[in-house]
Design a protein that fits this description.
The protein is of the alpha+beta class. It is built from 18 helices and eight strands. Helices cover 60% and strands 9% of the residues. It has a four-stranded antiparallel sheet with strand order 1-8-3-6. It has a four-stranded antiparallel sheet with strand order 2-7-4-5, with no helix packed on it. Helix 1 runs antiparallel to helix 2, helix 5 runs antiparallel to helix 8 and helix 7 packs across helix 8. It is elongated, with a radius of gyration of 44 Å. The protein starts with 8 loop residues before the first helix and ends in a 16-residue tail after the last helix. The N terminus and C terminus are likely disordered. Pfam families: cNMP_binding (PF00027), Ion_trans (PF00520). This is Cyclic nucleotide-binding domain-containing protein. InterPro entries: cNMP-bd_CS (IPR018488), cNMP-bd_dom (IPR000595), cNMP-bd_dom_sf (IPR018490), Ion_trans_dom (IPR005821), K/Na_HCN_channel (IPR051413), RmlC-like_jellyroll (IPR014710). Keywords: Ion transport, Membrane, Transmembrane, Transmembrane helix, Transport.
């Protein structure tokens, strides 16, 4: 009965205890017979080996050989290479600048990690019954997979593990033994933990996939709540919404903060690149010194105006000059008539900065206008560094101002036409 292959765990422990007891008994018997006279030592030793061989049964030796299966567990040391693989993936992302692709790579890594844990769980589901000798109530014996092909064994083990991890069932059959029950609980707990971590990481990565668009939606939502709180009229709300849509194009960046963190040279290069279309379209910049253009461009401020917005109001003191990157503006006289229109590449408002005179006409946006403004402080600071450019601009402005005044006086004396102003400017060339 002691040599019977019973699946009962209690009987197995009892058999192993008996094997150890009888084995120690044989060794103890051998050790008690060693200190004997030399004349009879050989006979006694032979007798001793006979007794020891009789006490050590062949069935017990075969059972002890199962321990050799544990040597296969040494192959698990290869799993330590996974850390090297993760390090290699991180290095590839840094070397090849896979910043946007890194989001998808992280999601892919999470999926691979979840499949790897499922693989480990499936292998554990099969390893434990194998070490027990495939008891009759184990899931392997119930499915009759002891002698099946390894691919079939692995497929059913992986299916059982993934069923536990995803909490969709127990596989083909529920656990029938205590060991299978504990393995099932372990697999369920690990699966639920991995599933929760996967959802959390995936949600975080998806949200960070387009952070600028998310910030834009948050900013628009905040503006909508503000408009509702202040009870602004519908037309004004519509104008504010359209302004945000045209200004930010669905993406919100704190450009001043981003550029402020860069070095001076790098910030200058970025601004010059962003304003390259403006420099190419404005003849005033095309014929000016490169350093002067760079100093002016780095002090420009981007502004957007909607159709109908008054950019410059008649009678105000000039504090800015403007460069038109895109759009059309109208020069409106005091009587409401349009004197002229300016478009891409034009600039206006510089004469008042040089002469400290008041605006004698208004400038109104005819379409959506993307402008760059230069304040009077920055305007004078740049011209102080380039006296030649200041003298050139002053002479040109004085000549244009004189001609405008002459045309105004001539028009008034003749009693016809609309007086010309310093704001009636077409694209200028330096």
């Amino acid at each position: 009965e002691l040599t019977n292959n019973s699946p009962n765990s209690t009987c197995s422990c009892y058999r192993y205890s008996v094997d150890i007891l009888f084995g120690n008994s044989g060794l103890l018997k051998w050790s008690t017979l060693v200190p004997v006279v030399h004349a009879g030592f050989i006979c006694t030793a032979i007798r001793m080996f006979q007794d020891f061989s009789e006490s050590f049964q062949i069935l017990h030796a075969g059972r002890a050989l199962r321990i050799l299966r544990l040597a296969k567990l040494l192959s698990l040391v290869r799993l330590l290479r996974l850390s090297r693989l993760v390090r290699y993936v991180s290095q590839w992302e840094e070397v090849y600048f896979l910043n946007m692709a890194s989001v998808f790579m992280r999601i892919f890594n999470l999926i691979c990690m979840m499949l790897l844990i499922g693989h480990w769980s499936g292998c554990l589901q099969f390893l434990v019954p194998m070490l027990q000798g495939f008891p009759s109530n184990s899931w392997v014996a119930i499915n009759e997979l002891q002698e099946a092909f390894w691919l079939e064994q692995y497929s059913w083990a992986l299916f059982k593990a993934m069923s536990h991890m995803l909490c969709i069932g127990y596989g083909r059959f529920p656990p029938q033994s205590l060991t299978d029950m504990w393995l099932t609980m372990l697999s369920m707990i690990s699966g639920a933990t991995c599933y929760a971590l996967f959802l959390g990481h995936a949600t975080n990565l998806i949200q960070s996939l387009d952070s600028s668009r998310r910030q834009y939606r948050e900013r628009v939502k905040q503006v909508e709540e503000y408009m509702a709180y202040r009870k602004l009229p519908r037309e004004m709300r519509q104008r504010i919404t359209e302004y945000f849509e045209h200004r930010y194009q669905g993406k919100f960046f704190d450009e001043e903060a981003i550029l402020g963190e860069l070095s001076e040279k790098l910030r200058e290069d970025v601004i010059n690149y962003n304003c390259r279309s403006l420099v190419a379209s404005v003849p005033f910049f095309a014929n000016a010194d490169g350093n002067f253009v760079s100093d002016v461009v780095t002090k420009l401020r981007y502004e957007v105006f909607q159709p109908g917005d008054i950019i410059i109001k008649e009678g105000t003191i000039g504090t800015k000059m403007y460069f038109i990157q895109e759009g059309i503006v109208d020069i409106v006289m005091a009587n409401g008539e349009v004197a002229t229109s300016l478009s891409d590449g034009s600039y206006f408002g510089e004469i008042c900065l040089l002469t400290n005179a008041r605006r004698v006409a208004s400038v109104r946006a005819e379409t959506y206008c993307n402008l760059f403004s230069l304040s009077v402080e920055h305007f004078n600071a740049v011209l102080d560094q380039y006296p030649l450019m200041r003298r050139t601009m002053e002479s040109v402005a004085a000549e244009r101002y004189r001609k405008n005044k002459a045309r105004q006086e001539a028009a008034l004396r003749a009693g016809e036409g609309i007086p010309q102003t310093d704001e009636e400017e077409r694209p200028h060339q330096q």
